[in-house]
Amino acid sequence: MSTKFIKVLLGLFCLVSFARAQSSTESNYLVIKPGDTAEDIVHEAAMLTPSPRQLRWQQLELTCFFHYGMNTFTGKEWGDGTENPLLFNPTALDAGQWVRTVKDAGIKQVIITAKHHDGFCLWPSKYTQHSVKNSPWKEGKGDVVKEVADACKRYKMGFGIYLSPWDRNSPIYGTEAYNDYFVNQLTELLTQYGRVDEVWFDGANGGGPNGKKQVYDFNRWYALIRKLQPNAVIAIMGPDVRWVGTESGHGRETEWSVVPANNLDQNVITKSSQHDKIFKPEGDMRGSDLGGRDKIKNAKGLVWFPAETDVSIRPGWFYHAAEDDKVKSPEKLLDIYYNSVGMNSVLLLNIPPDKKGLVSESDIKALQGWKKLRDETFKTNLARNASVQCANGLHLNALLDDDYQTYFTTSGIDTSTTITLNLQGAKTFDVLLLQENISIGQRVEKFTLECWDGKAWVKTTEGTTIGYKRLLRFPTITTNKVRLSLSARLNPAIAAFALYKQP
Ligand code: FUL
Q: Mutate which of 162, 202, 248, 318 to test ligand 1's pocket (most atoms within 8 Å of Cβ)?
C-alpha cells in the first residue's frame, strides 16, 4: 500500500468515525520525514490540529487589549522609562466599566498592558520601584492588574497579560540579570491573579537605559508559563498565536493556520513532547500566503500557528484626548470584523481607557454601533431551512444545524465536492459564512458560491482558505437555489454554511 493511500485512509477514518468532533488529541506539530513527497506534505498539513488551548482561543473570535499606563498620563506612545511615578493618577478608575463595556460589544477575553516599554508596572511588583506603589493613585495601595482580573472573574471573561520584554527603565536591561528580573515579574503575574488565558509578548526590542540590547531567554519564559498557567496561549513572541503581520485590522485572503516551522529548534522538539514544543517565531510573517502548497513543500516541519489581528480603535495604542474624534466608526469596525474574524483570524481590538480610568464615551458609542450592525446582519441564516443535496457528501444537515461540533464531509477518498442548497423559495442575501471544523484540520483550498438565475448557474463569490471562519460580502442577490463547490487537501470537514442580508 502506498503511503499516500494509507494517509488518505487515516484521514477518512478520523472523519467518518468521528461524525462529531472529539476533543483534539492529534498533534499540532510534525517534523517532515526525509523522502516525504510534496503530496505527502500536503496530507500531513491537513492532519494537523490545534492544541486544546489554541482551539479555545480561536473560538473566542473577539478579544481586546486595554493599553493603559504611564503613557496615558504623559500623552506619549512609547515612554522612555524616566517618567515620574507621581504622574500616574487616575481619578475614577473602574475596571468593571472597562470589562462590562467590552463584554456588551461581544468581546470574550481582555489583555491588560501590565508593563509597557517604559517599564512602569500596573501592579505593585516587589522587584522594582517603578510601579503603581509609588504613585498617588489609591495612595500607592492600588493594583490595576488585580482590578482587571477581578472584573474578568465577575463578568466571566477571559483574562490575559501583556508584559513588554523591552524595558527602558530597568538599569539591568541588557544583562543576564534582566532575564531573572523578567522571570520574577512574570511569576508574580502568573501566580497572584488567578487563571491567565493569554500571555502576550511584544516583538519590539530597542536598547535599554544604558543603550544595551537584551538577549531574551524565551525558552525559560515559555516553560514557566506552561508550568504555572498551562491553559494560557503565548502570543506573538511565542509558540501558540502568530501576529497577522499588520496593525491595520486587515488579515489575509488566504490564511492557513498550518505554516512551515523551519525555525523550530530541533533539539528542543526531540526533548519535549510535541504538544509542548517550544520555539520563538521567526521568518516572514507578512507575505500574502504563509502556508500554501508552495510554502510548505520544502518545509522541515509544520505547525498549527494561527493568526491574531491586533488593531487599535484609535490612531494610537494609548488614550489621547486629541484623538477623541478619530475613534473608528461602527462601519470601519465592521470592516475590520469581516477582514479579521472573517478571514480565519482572532481579532484583538485595542480600547484604551482615559486619564480618569474609564473607557471614554466616544469609544463606547462606536462599540455599541458595531455590535448593533453585527447583530442585525447575523440574526437569521437565510439558508437555515434549505434542503441540501450532494452526490458524494455525508452528514449534509450538519451544515445548517448551528452546532460547530458536527460537520459535513465527503465519502470515499473524494477531496472535492459540490453541494446544492434549495432555499425553499426566493431569498435575498449579500453575505456568505463558511466554517471548517478545525479540530479535524484546516483543509479547504478553494471554494466558489454560485446562484441559480432561472436558466444557469452564475458565480457569486469565491475564495481560497476557510479555516475556523470565512465571511464574504458581495452585491445583493435574490435566488431560490445556490451551490457551493470546493476542493480540499483531504476530505473537508465543513461545520457551517450560512447566508445573511446586511441591513
Ligand atoms: C507594539 C508596541 O510597540 C505598541 O506600543 C503596542 O503595544 C503594540 C500592540 O505592539 O509592538
A: 202
**Could you list the residue range(s) of the whole structural domain that residue 80 is in?**
61-257+306-377
- Read off the pTM: 0.93
Tens of pLDDT along 382-397? 999 999 999 999 999 9
Number of domains in the chain: 2
pLDDT single digits (tens) 107-143 = 999 999 999 999 999 999 999 999 999 999 999 999 9
Atom of ligand 1 nearest to the CA of 67: 7
Do 192 and 250 lie in one domain? The reply is yes
CB neighbour list of residue 316: distance below 8 Å, 6 or more residues apart: 77, 323, 352
pLDDT tens column, 142-189: 999 999 999 999 999 999 999 999 999 999 999 999 999 999 999 999
Cα separation values, 496 from 397, 408, 436, Å: 10, 8, 7
CA of 433 to the centre of ligand 1 (A): 32
Distance of CA 48 to the CA centre of its chain: 18
Report yes or no: 295 and 289 within 8 Å, Cβ to Cβ.
yes
What pLDDT shows up at residue 9? 43
Cβ neighbors of 68 (< 8 A, separation 6 or more) are 112, 113, 122, 144, 318, 319, 352, 353
CA angle 418, 423, 428 (to 5 degrees): 110
Residues 373 and 407 in one domain: no
**Distance from C-alpha of 437 to C-alpha of 68, rounded to nearest angstrom:** 36
Q: Which residue in this structure is represented by grid cell 521567526?
A: 282
Identity of the amino acid at 262: N
pLDDT of residue 264: 52
Over residues 418-436, mean pLDDT = 98
